[in-house]
From TrEMBL:
Origin: domain of life: Eukaryota
Protein's name according to its UniProt entry: Carbonic anhydrase
Species lineage: Eukaryota, Fungi, Dikarya, Ascomycota, Pezizomycotina
Catalysed reactions, semicolon-separated: hydrogencarbonate + H(+) = CO2 + H2O
GO cellular component terms, A-Z: cytoplasm
GO biological process: carbon utilization; cellular response to carbon dioxide; cellular response to oxidative stress
Annotated source species: Morchella conica CCBAS932
Purpose: Reversible hydration of carbon dioxide.
Cofactors required: Zn(2+)
Classification via PANTHER family: CARBONIC ANHYDRASE
Length: 217
């Protein structure tokens, strides 16, 4: 195993003990650079960002954003989907907004997303099809635009973007989010991560045509 932490790979020949060793080296390095970090984190967390992303192993939010432990509150699932009525994501959003008082919510999709690729096809995968139905509904709602894209890679990329747009709009319909946006300037952003280059781009999200339907005033 190389001593360079930047090129570590966990392979079939590695054991869990190697991860524990790796963790100790990481904590020692970070403690040497920022001695107050871990004692402060032991008392409380004060993240400014809620990140809603994909479970994909290639998109680790804190690493991608070059931030430290304690700076990002996180919810991840397959294809960064935000279904109506999903108690897991709703609970995370409410806690992040009302208790942690985050200032930014980021919905981040990524190009080359396996969930999006699966949702564009009609192959059945079993249990996960119930989850992917949310993406397939977005596909159906935008079928003409997607059908006009001849390049299959570009078609996947566009559905990735449309899924992020749907996620941003869904969050902006959340009562806690609406109140926080009005009362303290909470911001909601759509990101797309390019796995091939390691870079995030901010997605332009059009105005939600259903905004008036979800007004709680």
């Amino acid at each position: 195993m190389s001593n360079d932490p930047s090129i570590f790979r966990f392979t079939d020949g590695d054991t869990i003990d190697s991860l524990i060793h790796r963790n100790k080296e990481w904590s020692q390095r970070l403690s040497a650079l920022r001695p107050a970090l871990f004692p402060a984190l032991a008392n409380a967390q004060h993240p400014q960002i809620l990140w809603i992303g994909c479970s994909d192993s290639r998109v680790p939010e804190t690493t991608v954003l070059d931030l430290l432990p304690g700076e990002v509150f996180v919810h991840r699932n397959i294809a960064n989907i935000l279904p109506t009525g999903d108690l897991s994501s709703l609970s995370v959003i409410q806690y992040a907004v009302e208790v942690l008082q985050v200032k930014h919510i980021i919905v981040c999709g990524h190009y080359g997303c396996g969930g999006v690729m699966a949702a564009l096809g009609n192959k059945r995968y079993g249990l996960i099809d119930h989850w992917l139905q949310n993406l397939r509904d977005i596909r159906v709602a935008n079928k003409e635009e997607l059908a006009a894209i001849s390049d299959p890679v570009k078609r996947v990329e566009r559905l990735v973007e449309l899924n992020v747009v749907a996620g941003v709009n869904s969050i902006k319909r959340n009562e806690s989010v609406i109140e926080a946006m009005e009362e303290r300037g909470l911001e909601v952003h759509g990101f797309v991560y390019d796995v091939a280059h390691g870079t995030c781009g901010v997605l332009e999200v059009p105005a939600d045509p259903n905004t008036d339907v979800y007004c709680y005033k």
